[in-house]
Amino acid sequence: MFRGFYTAGSGMIAQQRRTEMLANNMANANTPGFKAEQSTIRSFPEMFMSTVNATRIPTEKGLRYKGLTPVGPLSTGVYMQETLPLFTQGSLRETGMTTDVALIDVNLPVNTETGERGTVFFRLENENGNELYTRNGNFTIDANGNLTNPMGYYVLDANGQRIQLQNDEFSISDTGVIMQDGATVATLGVSFAEQPSSLLKQDNGLFASQTGNLPGAQGGYSYQQGYLEGSNVDAAKTMTDMLAAFRAFEANQKILQAYDRSMEKAVNEIGRVN
């Protein structure tokens, strides 16, 4: 019976964590460039239960030997193994701001071994000089003329250098070339992740590579100035999934309460001595 406590309890914990993940997706439904998270829930290894019995051998000494009678498998609970971002293209939203840029996936290559489609990101440099990646093209110009993201991180060009502009009167072509006053200033830097699921997710829609800086992208994408890529969160599906998680949590809760009542009866009534 105590195994039932653990099984129901693990189910409640898994659904609670899944609900928290879905709530975070819903909260970022309007965040530019946000990538919805997906969860993978798996069960602990099953136990194969058997009963031990003894059989008497019809001999003079009445010997016995022990045997096992199969009962069947027993689940030992579930847990949420990991969360993985979904790197599908979000819808484009027009802002009219020259400093807003959207990355558009056109024909990015697919990994032949895993079947996973690659993803491109804007290149950023944080305050420690480390390179980070984002799909949020909501940029601005700081007091020193550097193109930065909302966190104040520097936007890098194709050569890994910071981009400096005189003002916000500039144009960006569909190939990422920045023009100001008729002269070429720089080309927006874009990196390609062959396996985006291996990236480390940071706060504020940022990603970091575990194996050094990502290589530059060679094509299969384009830019759109004056637009932002929206979140790829499906609000309707997320709400439905949250309701399903709540129902699963409640079902495990009722099972836990039933076990609790059974234990209470066993202690207070079955074990009573008259």
TrEMBL record:
Give the record's GO CC terms. bacterial-type flagellum basal body
Q: Which family does it belong to?
A: Belongs to the flagella basal body rod proteins family.
| Subcellular compartments | Bacterial flagellum basal body
Q: Which SUPFAM superfamilies match?
A: Flagellar hook protein flgE (SSF117143)
Q: Where is the Flagellar basal body rod protein N-terminal domain?
A: 5-35
- The name of this protein is Flagellar hook-basal body protein
- Kindly give the NCBIfam families that the UniProt entry links to this protein: FlgEFG_subfam
Q: Is the Lyase keyword given for this protein?
A: no
- Which keywords annotate this record? Bacterial flagellum, Cell projection, Cilium, Flagellum
Domain spans labelled Flagellar hook protein FlgE/F/G-like D1: 118-178
Q: Which residues form the Flagellar basal-body/hook protein C-terminal domain?
A: 224-268
Q: Which domain of life is it from?
A: Bacteria
Q: Which BP terms in the Gene Ontology apply to this protein?
A: bacterial-type flagellum-dependent swarming motility
